[in-house]
Amino acid sequence: MSEHLHTALSLVANGLPVLPLRKGKVPFGNCPACAKNACGGRPNMKTPGPCTCPAPCHGWAAATADPNVVNSSTWVRAWREAAGVAYHPGGAGLTVVDLDNPAAIAWARASLPATRTVRTTRGEHWLYLGVMQSANAVRPGVDVKSTMAYARWLGPGTGTMAALPDVVRALIVKESAPVRPVAVTVPALVGDGTCPHRTPTYLDRGIAMAEQRITEAREAVHATVYRAFLAVLSTHGRCGCLTEAHTARLFAAAQAKGESPRHCTDAWTNALTKLGL
Description:
This protein is an alpha+beta fold. The protein is about 35% helix and about 15% strand. The chain contains nine helices and ten strands. It has helices at about 5-10, 65-70, 75-80, 100-110, 165-175, 200-215, 220-235, 245-255, 260-275; strands at about 20, 25, 85, 95-100, 115-120, 125-130, 135-140, 140-145, 150, 160-165. The strands form two sheets. Strands 4, 5, 6, 7, 8 and 10 form a six-stranded mixed beta sheet that branches. Strand 5 (about 115-120) and strand 6 form a beta hairpin. Helix 6 runs antiparallel to helix 7, helix 6 (about 200-215) packs parallel to helix 8 and helix 7 (about 220-235) crosses helix 9.
């Protein structure tokens, strides 16, 4: 048994989805049958449809915590050629803050809560309990690796793992384009003009639920954002409750998941059109 296979089996025994890395610290390329995603993609990728290919294809989406797959003949051949072991942080409920140089490490020590730390070739990985969208270059020398990403396994590290803090989640928001909420124009309320939703608690709860729905989306983010906007507008779009502050909150949640201001605007406009507003 190769050293990398032994490491991989130890990791999957603890529920960590793994994949082999070839030279250059990159995943193995797709096989001919899966080239250009012709097979329909892995189930955990954005493209729907199963893939029956037994090879460690599809980059980060090849990661698996199934020991039978990891120890299969096809994967064993890959492990023999592998230069390292990687894992899917988001699949294990983790987020890795990848600090690539001493300046980035100094920033983290001054700005982030202490957590488990793993030494890397050039810097450190800070591991937090919690999942978020991955993003590169959120600040100089800092990448965030969680969903739809992989990180090299370089050992268990030291220290107690802390919960994913808001300051890390905010990194991808700060680097996004400014939120540009759409001005909401709704028809006058039919009847006596009394709005049944002006109780702040009721409205705030609805906005918070929509934000949570968007934030927790693991896939189909575009569709999730649209459905969340549609739900808010179907309840509050005709009574005049919504303000620019509310739409800004929804747009910010969507942009934190990687949506552009244009996508947010399109989703909002499409929801208005669907409801005839």
